[in-house]
Structure formats: C-alpha cells, structure tokens
Specification:
By secondary structure, the protein is of the alpha/beta class. It has 5 domains: 199 residues, Rossmann fold; 193 residues, Rossmann fold, CATH 3.40.50; 103 residues, Orthogonal Bundle (Arc Repressor Mutant, subunit A), CATH 1.10.10; 88 residues, HRDC domain (DNA polymerase, domain 1); 100 residues, ATP-dependent DNA helicase RecQ (Arc Repressor Mutant, subunit A), CATH 1.10.10. The protein contains 34 helices and 17 strands. Strands 3-4-2-5-6-1-7 form a 7-stranded parallel beta sheet, with helices on both faces.
Length: 725
C-alpha cells in the first residue's frame, strides 16, 4: 500500500507543492496500489497531477493517451520545466521526424522517460504497438476520456480502440480522466475501457466564481462584443466561434477596432497556431478568437472572460470551454450569444450523419437550447445536467439570479405531465409529451390511438413554451429524468410517482423571452434603445427615396439598418458605409440624404455619438466578396464557388444576401434555370411581389411544402437584385 508520507515527499520534490487539492492524494494512492481509477474533475481542478506524480514514483514509463498535439506539447514542456530534464517526458505523434522518433525511443528504453504522451491514432500503428511491447509500462492514463463516448462533446472513434490495443501491448492499471461527463458518458467511458470496477472520484462541477449569462444574438453582435471588451481593458479573454471563417472575420474586426487579438483554428499552419497561442499565454495579445480546439491543456489561470460568439453544440462542450475562465479562483465572466437561427444551422449540419448520430446530436442541441432559453438559475441547470444537485434555488452569480423572473404555481400542470408520461408507458421524449398534452395531432399519435386517450389535449390552453419550461424544471427538481441511454426519453423518478399519489405545490419560473425582437431585461441597450425621434425622420427619408426611384422601402434600407443608424448616429460616409446592411453602393447613392438629416439632428439636440460602438469593419470583407462577384459574372456553379472558399452553401447564400441588400446587383439566373422550372420561379416571384415587407420567414412558411429553403432564398436574391442600385 502506498505510503501517504512518501507521496507528500514526492510532491514537494517534483512539483514544489506542500499539499494536495481535493481528492488528488487518494487518487494517486489508488493508482500506485495498482487499481483502475476514474476521475471526473472540472477544468482547473488538477487532473494532470493525478497521473504525473505517480509516473515519477513508479518503475517504468506511464503511457498518456491524449487527443491533441498542442495539448501534448504543453504538458511535456511544463513537466520538463519542473524537472530540468529534457528526457523525462516525451510525446510520440505525427509531428515528429524520423530522427526525433529515434531519440524518443532511445530515452524511453534507457529508463530516463517517465511520461510518454501518445495520440490514439499513433497508438494504433503497428510500429508503436511493437515498441510499447518492448518496454516496461507503469500504467496508462486516458486524458480527455469523454472522447470515447458518442454522447460526449468531442467524440473520436479512435478512442474506442484503446482497450483492445492496451490488451495487445501489456495490460496495466488504467486511470481515465475528464473534466466533463454526464452519468451516461461516465458509463460509456468505464464500459468501453473495461474499468467498470474502477475507483470513481467525482469533484463538484460548481465553480462559484464563474458568472453565467446568455444574451440574445442580434445583427449587432460584433458591436456588443467590442463594447464588452473595451469595458474590460487589459483583461485576458477567449472568444469561441464555430467556424474557421468566423474566427478570421471576427479577429480582423477586433484588430481594426484597436483590440489586441489573434486567431486560432485547425486550418492555420502549425507554426502560426503555436505562435498565436504563445502570444496569448505571454500576454502579447489580450484576446484569442478560436474554434473549440483551443484551450485543452492551456494553463492560463487569469482568463477573465469567455465569450461564445455562436451557440455551443452541447452543454458539455460549453461547460468545459467556460471552465477556462477564472481558474485562479478570481473573476470569470461567461457570456453566450444565443440565436435560434444558429441552432437551426447546427441542426442542418447533422443531416449528413447516420440516423443514430443525428438523434444524439439533436438531443445535445435540445439541451443547449433549454439552457439558453430558461429563466431558471443557470448554475442549477448545469449542475443538474451533470447529475449534481444544488440545494439553493439561486446561485446569485448568473443573469437569471441577478434579474429573477416571476414564479408561478404549476403543481396541477405537473401532475398532468407526470400522469401523461405514465399513461404513455414512459417511452417518449418531452417534445412528444408536449404535443400530446396540447392536442397536436401527429401521425404517430393517431396510428397508436393516443389521440383517443383521456389526457390527450388536457393542457391545450397552456403554451408549448411554458410546458417545455415546466418539464425542464421538473427534471431539475427530480420528478422526471432524461434517459440518455434512449435519446432523452422522459421517465418518472420515485419522487415523481410519489407526487402523482400525493400532489403538492410546485413553483416554477416562467420561460425567458428570447424572441428575435425582444431583449433580456437588464441589457444596457435594446432595439428600443434606438432614438425614436430620429427613427421617424429616417423612415420618412427612406419613404421619399423609395417613391422617387420606384422601389419598395425595405430595398432602400431595412428597418434594422435604420435602427442601427438611430443608435450609432453616423455623421460621415465611412461610418455610414460601415453600418451592417449599408455597404459602399448604397452609401454612394443614398448616403448624402440620410447623413444630412442625422448631422442636423445631432447638432440640434447636442448629441455626442458613443464612440465605443462605432465598429469599423473590413471593407466588403476583402477578397472573398470580390471572388464571389467575379465568379458569378463568369457563371460558375454556386456549389463550386462555396467549395473553393471553404464555405457551407447556406453561408454562401448569406454572403450573397448581404451583397444584394447592400446594393450589389447579382445575376444568378444561370444557376436558377438549372434547378427550377420557369413556372416554379414565376410562382415564387409572384408571392414575393405580393408581400408588403421583406419577410423571408413568411415566404418559407407559405412555400416550404413545395420548395426548399435554399430555393426560396435564391429566388429572393433574384427578386431583390432586380431592385438593386
């Protein structure tokens, strides 16, 4: 049995610490005693020490299986700096040349290397297997173990092979570590690694110093981000985006606005990526704008804010990424910008996957949406998702707790929900339960005869949104559980069954308003923050221009553009052109008339435009736009244009929409003639002409049964382009 005094002595010798945090010492003792161990410890809790110290104390070399090359390099550099010995730790992956690989193997065989980091892809190579069979292995450490599970936020098929490879090499004790795992993911990890009897150590997921907030994502999100950063000067922050393109665009916008920022994503060459990461760690830049790959293993304790520019794909990923803030116990602000449109884009990206992967992906997105739209304590939702209960109703450190919503009694409705779950055999997800109780006739429900049951339509007078909120809070309170083994099917808990027999009061918080045209209470600026007096004057200018040139008013400038003008008060051509939705063409054609009104209004009312929200943008987003316009002039297939620029097709359409709405005339008839018959085109055009306002959602709702969303959007481009300047 490992001696605690010896473990503490080794800690001082190798790392210079006088004591352990949390369960570290017990974990290390078990591993040294030859037991398998599962460690669930939030970011910043000290997971690495749990296998690094035992490696120094054990005979042989510990094999650390890790998913990212950058993560391995950081870990190895940190260990070497502690020990002053270049050979004490190595990594073995595809980034090494032949000479470097030979040096690694030489150090390992000599007994000099105590930790060898290996990527799962490298581990599966026959040459690696043969080499590892020839050395003495102390134990295996599986870092970022959530990658094993399809329900995890970063599933990697190579992780599923680890157990069979270990058995082939040399079975030894195993420690699996992760910062994020729901009970379902934990079960997957232990089962797949063959360590179901492992000692399990779970630390609390609660990070009291982190402040959680969800903001509605509007067209002015860049301005909102810049305003936040400038109100926190000199502080380190991470901004996460879902696409490489968005990372590059946002980084350019930040730098144009005087913010020290650099990009990080997998599409960059390794040297540039490493240099940008080092600049962030050494505080040569304040902000890193990154895809989700950034941050794993990055030990920067003073990250003061983490911003999610795009909605995250899962709560696990979101929790891990926010966990990179405030690791020193100090301030950590976590802001997520949420838009249902972003959620729809993510859902569309699942379409190319297998049915099982689609089901899992949609369930994870649903959990994210529930978190974003909820008015309940954010921390309580997160902890509940990971199987941890928070005793208090409010944490006091999230937007919903600081601005609490009205609580309502929902005991009678909860009783009906619980009875419905029981009546339907506990075989359905929340969406079906809501449809059943509100009386929505579904094909499946009719086929199964559910529309003839007693409770069908029993809550028809309750909004879907409120019912979804009630179910979510019933899960948090412990009356229901989401069976993740079966894609989120609702099941009754003992508490829920007791409630059916003995109902009582159940107070819930009503759903948060997250509609596109509403903004959370407490925001400093809202859509209503636009100067209404100026808005009326600008609307009149727009009407006058539209009548003169025989255009619909919304084609001159959209309402949201007028709102931005009435908020930012542009007084010169550059500022006017940089407002999202204007562009150079419309600035040249209409700018003088609008600027004359704004300048006089500002002078007469002694208004000083707020300089912190005058966002400078990259003119015409540079070469990409020029390439798109030139390619369309040459009648190149739109899919080919998208592929050549690494864009998703809906991203290309969005870029085309921006161009047309800013006054660029685009002729895509050559493409439309290939995908739509002339009479079909005419039908869509006739409908668009009948609309008094530009309403894409209405068009999709009306025509969506016969045409795809992409076809409707492309025809809208043709329609708007016919009016372009």
């Amino acid at each position: 049995m490992a001696d605690d005094k010896e473990i503490l002595r080794a800690l001082r010798e190798h790392f210079g610490f006088d004591g352990f945090k949390g369960n570290q010492q017990a974990i290390i003792r078990d591993l040294l005693d030859g037991r398998d161990v599962f460690v669930l410890m939030p970011t910043g809790g000290g997971k690495s020490l749990c296998y690094q110290l035992p490696a120094f104390m054990s005979e042989g070399t510990a094999i650390v299986i890790s998913p990212l090359i950058a993560l391995m390099k950081n870990q190895v550099d940190a260990i070497r700096s502690h020990c002053g010995d270049e050979g004490v730790a190595h990594f073995l992956n595809s980034s090494l040349g032949k000479a470097a690989v030979l040096k690694v193997k030489e150090d390992v065989r000599s007994g000099r290397t105590k930790l060898l980091y290996v990527a799962p892809e490298s581990l599966s190579k026959l040459s690696t297997v043969d080499f590892l069979r020839s050395i003495k292995i102390s134990f295996y450490a599986i870092d970022e173990a959530h990658c094993i599970s399809e329900w995890g936020h970063d599933f990697r098929p190579e992780y599923r092979k680890i157990r069979s490879l270990v058995d082939c090499i040399s079975p030894r004790p195993m420690i699996a570590l992760t910062a994020t795992a729901t009970p379902k993911v934990q079960h997957d990890i232990q089962k797949n690694l063959g360590i179901t009897d492992a000692r399990v150590y779970k630390s609390s997921f609660n990070r009291p110093n982190l402040y959680y907030e969800v903001r509605q994502k509007t067209e002015h999100v860049d301005r909102d981000v810049i305003r936040f950063i400038k109100s926190n000067p000199g502080k380190s922050g991470i901004i996460y985006c879902l696409s490489r393109r968005r990372v590059e665009e946002l980084t350019n916008v930040l730098r144009l606005n005087g913010i020290r920022a650099k990009a990080y994503h997998a599409g960059m060459d390794a040297a540039t990526r490493a240099a940008n990461q080092d600049d962030f760690l050494t505080e040569k830049v304040d902000i890193i704008v990154a895809t989700i790959a950034f941050g794993m293993g990055i030990d920067k304790p003073d990250v003061r804010y983490v911003i999610h520019y795009d909605v995250p794909k899962s709560l696990e990923g979101y929790y891990q990424e926010t966990g990179r803030g405030g690791r020193d116990g100090g301030e950590g602000t976590c802001i997520a910008f949420y838009s249902s449109k972003d959620l729809q884009k993510l859902d569309k990206l699942l379409q190319g996957k297998t049915p099982s992967e689609q089901e899992i992906g949609r369930q994870l997105l649903l959990e994210t949406a529930r978190y974003a739209e909820s008015a309940v304590c954010r921390r309580k939702i997160l902890l509940s998702y990971f199987g941890e209960q928070m005793t208090d109703d409010r944490c006091g450190n999230c937007d919903n707790c600081r601005n609490p919503k009205t609580r309502i009694e929902a005991g009678p409705q909860l009783l009906v929900v619980l009875r419905a779950c029981s009546m339907l055999g506990e075989r359905y997800k929340s969406e079906y339960i809501v449809a059943f109780l509100t009386g929505s006739h579904t094909e499946e429900g009719h086929r199964l005869g559910h529309d003839a049951l007693e409770l069908f339509g029993a809550l028809a007078d309750v909004e879907d949104r409120l019912l979804n909120t009630l179910i979510q809070q019933a899960v948090i309170a412990g009356y229901l559980t989401n069976d993740m083994e079966n894609y989120g099917i609702l099941k009754l808990t003992p508490m829920g069954r007791h409630f059916i027999g003995k109902p009582e009061k159940f107070m819930i918080v009503g759903p948060a308003e997250m509609d596109e045209d509403t903004v959370e209470a407490g925001d400093e600026e809202t859509a209503a923050g636009a100067d209404t007096g100026l808005m009326e004057m600008l609307s009149e200018v727009r009407r006058r221009i539209a009548a003169r040139i025989d255009m619909p008013p919304y084609v001159v400038l959209r309402d949201e553009v007028l709102e931005a003008m009435a908020t930012m008060y542009p007084t010169d051509t550059e500022e006017f052109a940089n407002i999202n939705g204007v562009g150079q063409a419309k600035a040249r054609r209409f700018g003088e008339e609008f600027l004359e009104v704004i300048t006089e209004y500002v002078r007469r009312n002694n208004i000083e435009p707020p300089s912190d929200i005058k966002v400078r943008t990259v003119a015409d987003t540079g070469k990409t736009r020029v390439y798109i316009i030139q390619s369309i002039d040459r009648k190149i297939d739109l899919e080919e244009i998208a592929d050549s620029k690494g864009l998703e097709f809906d991203e290309l359409i969005a870029e085309l929409e921006n161009l047309v709405l800013e006054g660029t005339r685009l002729n895509i008839d050559y493409y439309l003639d290939e995908i739509l018959e002339e009479e079909c085109q005419q039908e869509i055009l006739d409908y668009l002409r009948s609309l008094e306002e530009d309403d894409l959602e209405a068009a999709i709702q009306e025509l969506g049964s016969e045409y795809t969303e992409e076809e409707i959007r492309l025809m809208r481009l043709k329609f708007l382009s016919s009016w372009s300047c």
